[in-house]
Each structure stands twice: as C-alpha cells, then as structure tokens.
Write the structure tokens for this entry.
Amino acid sequence: MNIDFSTDYLGFKLSTPLVASAGPVTSLPQNLPRLEEFGAGAIVLPSLFAEQIEHEELAVYDFYSEMDEAHAESRSYFPEMDFYNSGRDKYLQNIELAKQSVKIPVFASLNCRAAGQWTREAKRLQDAGADAIEINIYDVVADIERDSRAVELEQVKIIESIRSQVQIPIAVKLGPYYTALPHFARQLADAGANGLVLFNRYLEPEMDLQEMSVQPHLELSRPNEMRLPLRWIAILRDVLPISLAGTSGVHSPGDAIKLIMAGADVVMMTSAMLKMGVDHMESMFLGMKTWMHANEYTSITQMKGSMSRKNCPDPAGFERSNYIKAIVSYV
Ligand SMILES: Cc1cc2nc3c(=O)[nH]c(=O)nc-3n(C[C@H](O)[C@H](O)[C@H](O)COP(=O)(O)O)c2cc1C
C-alpha cells in the first residue's frame, strides 16, 4: 500500500508533515541535508532576534553621529546571540547556503516582542531566499499598566508591518498564554499571517539560593507537553482557514499522528532530536508509516483533522467538561 505523505503548509506542498523547528539542530549547516534525507518536509532556521538587529542599527548610528566610543561599544555587540545564530549578516548567507544544500523549503525566523524598525529585516530575509518567515513573538508582560488588548494590538501590528514588506508566507509562533486565543488568532490571520505555530515553549527562570540570583534555565520538552497544542489545534482547525503547525513535546510517531488528526498541517520537533540525534527524524517517519499502514490510512490528508473538535465523537472533550470529568475520575 502506497502512502501519500504530502501535506499543504503555508502554500507549499511538503513531501512530509515533519518539520525541523528553529533551534540548535537547524543551526548546523551539515544537519540540513541529513534532515532532508531522513524525511523532513521543511526546515526552520534558528531565530534572528529583534534586539540583535536594533542594536546593530544603533551601533551604525552611533558611529556616524560620532557618539562616544564606549557608549557605542556597549550597545553594539551581542556575542552570545551572534554565536547562536551567526549574527545578522551571516544569517543572510546561511539562508543562501541552506537553499543550496537542500531542495525542501527553508524558513527563516525572527524572534521579537514588539513592532519596530527591526521589522524591515524581513525583506532582507526574503531577498536572501527564505521561502517563508516564522515570527516568534515571545513577550513577558510585566508592566501592570499594559492590558491584554494593548498587548494583542501590538502583536497584530508586528504582523501587519511585516506583511506590508514581504510577499512570502508568514507563520506566527505563539506562546499558549492568551485569554481568548481563537479571536486573537483570527486577528493575526486578518493581519496577513498564513499560519500559526502552536506553541512556543516559555522558558521559566530558576532561582539560585546560594548566589541569591535568578538564572536562565533550559529544560528540553517532555512528551506529554504536546497535549496543550493538541487541544488548541483541534479547536482552531474548524474555525481558521490558515495553516497550523503543532510543536512542543512531539517525541514519538504517535505524538505526530495525534496532532495531525487534531488538524495540524505539520508537526515540528527540536527536543527529541537534541536528545536522540538528528536521525530521530527518520524514526518518526518510519514509525508513522508503520502505524498508518497498520491502520489503513493512505494519506496524511485523510488523517488530517479527522479528530478535530467538530469531527471527533466528543467535542466537549476539548473543553471544560474534560476538566470536570478528569477531576472526578481520579480515584
Ligand atoms: C536550545 C533551544 C533553542 C531554541 N531556539 C529557538 C529559536 O531560535 N527560535 C525559535 O522560534 N524557537 C527556538 N526554540 C524552540 C523550538 O523551536 C521548539 O519550538 C520548542 O523547543 C518546542 O518544541 P520541542 O518540544 O520539539 O523541543 C529553541 C529550543 C531549544 C531547546
């Protein structure tokens, strides 16, 4: 039995629904052909940060306006960020190199919290050959004066601004913390987003009781985290006509299949490959193939959305009633 693994995402016909998400795996050029060979349908490069772009532009301004050297120096250089994603100019070269090394689509990524001059960078990414741009909006709203409406409007403004500058597809990668996600998601679509990537993982800081300091802390995801995007993709699939990517906690073929059944067009992976190696992409692909064969599915299209909120036997299972049932079922 032949299985058609192709899927539509952001207007592309991808050969498989498995995408290597932005992170250390895609930051190494030598990994890209291997990912393609192992079954990735597309690749998202690591993010370029809005702060990085803005600081570089300020440094140029400082240089020409002959401000004092120390001032310029202090604002001009973010070595850790440059180490992570090669820096702003090299990032453009990396897009070109990535495009030469694989045939599958290559998406660039911008990481930001608010609109600004940095959004002009999107045009440079497009000109360098990126097939699409993923915008990762990562904000921690600590200001008590900012209400949710203002925060959401700011984020919509980011997408409007980028949409006005590029013709290539835009995906928006969001965290899960929105009061009314479907309504906000529709606003992003109206602003020009062609897809949503659900969800970004927020990395919570740790406290060091010896040093009495707050430390950055990174833990890789665990498999059960995919149930958060599972719920929201199932809910959004029936109400939004744009592409949906499931990410966070995709570790096994079963995780990917569940997200696709909920309605994801693609699933993305980073942690599992950091733990198990780049060839985990192939295990995912082969595992999905085996499962689909055993369960007589002939295509990804046939599976996609078959268990979305509207299509599953118990739509309320994705809502509050699930919470009540789960609580009372605990013995
Ligand atoms: C070390 C590390 C670096 C990451 N860098 C980026 C990044 O540059 N841009 C981005 O959008 N997401 C980044 N991510 C998030 C991943 O793309 C992914 O969304 C997240 O890890 C959840 O997926 P997972 O459970 O498969 O890891 C990073 C994740 C890790 C672990």
Notes: The longest strand covers residues 42-49.
